[in-house]
């Protein structure tokens, strides 16, 4: 670049030359122009290469991963893609045990419900957890009865003779069970058969029991009997019976409390208690005659048997207590105002309580605008279905961790896992 100046008479005292000629200004001719030559700019100092951030300590990484939410199982599976050491950690027995202990009761991954507005009858699995959908979520001619300890129980009416099916949605494990002679009205429940199990890692391939209860009317009185199927013995036990004047088993969700499973009866002021640990005794419990038939069995805050009833726009929670003489007493311990939780148009007709998730304490409420879940502890409400034809909601709870996901893939590589999670 060149810069030209008009000739000016610079004053410099006695020497008469243009000042600064020795500092990059060069005279071109005697005429009156001078060239200023530009000096090279000084080089910028290059900063030293930045150091990579220090690696996280292994125990810090583990503590972070332990806090990934269990109701979003894709989070842990994606973490397996980070590096091989993480995958080894996340599929290891020690980490998975710590993960389950840290989070406590298994999360709800979805629920089963019966669709009567489709022909033939369909049992459908509806996921509530992100990135989880079992193989073939619709089961034609299957009737969903119960779900507990990582297993779901169905009645397969298409099979001749009819059978029970125990299914694990996380692994697609199935086991068929012959149906005992069915009485006039009956119901069934499934639960883990491992003594002392904490039920944090129960799955379909482990030992389980199926409780089958039914009612027949003989000589003017109702007789309810029960028997148990053992997966280890592959056989049904003998029957235990109880006589009562006017209680017939209903095919509605049961609940597990302590060492007994409880079933609703018709009229719904009766509850059948089925002890499956000691002598497998049966007994009938009376409950308050309230809310007509709009109730669902629950476990109360202390784990005792309870029920939830809906009246107008409120849910009333009750728990059972035993006095010093062993007599049954019922206590109403909480009222939930649905007007503050659900949209007003959902309350134009009294909602129905149709399901309860043990462990996570979630109630399913059916309304004219869809099906909602209400977490009793936090009050969190979610709309989980837009269908108003859901008859019964049977929640499914389980941990769905990478050790369960990866073996199901045709090739346990990153591309297959990315495809699974998208």
Model description:
Helices cover 11% and strands 42% of the residues. The protein is mostly beta strands. The protein has 3 domains: 2-37, no CATH class; 58-98 and 409-421, no CATH class; 108-398, Neuraminidase, CATH 2.120.10. The strands form 7 sheets. Strands 11, 12, 13, 14 and 15 form a 5-stranded antiparallel sheet that branches. Strands 16, 17, 18, 19 and 20 form a 5-stranded antiparallel sheet that branches. The two termini are 59 Å apart. 33% of the residues are buried.
* Count of the domains: 3
**Mean pLDDT metric:** 83
Supply the CATH class of the largest domain.
Answer: Mainly Beta
Q: Find the structural class using helix and strand composition.
A: mainly beta
Portion of residues within helices: 10-25%
The major beta sheet can be summarized as: 5 strands, antiparallel
Q: Say how many strands there are.
A: 29
Strand portion = 35-45%
Radius of gyration, in angstroms, nearest whole number: 36 Å
User: What is the straight-line distance between the termini?
Assistant: 59 Å
Oligomer: single chain
Principal-axis shape: globular
Secondary-structure arrangement, i.e. CATH architecture of the largest domain: 6 Propeller
What is the CATH fold-level name of the largest domain?
Neuraminidase
Number of H- or I-type helical stretches:
6
Low-confidence stretches: 1-37
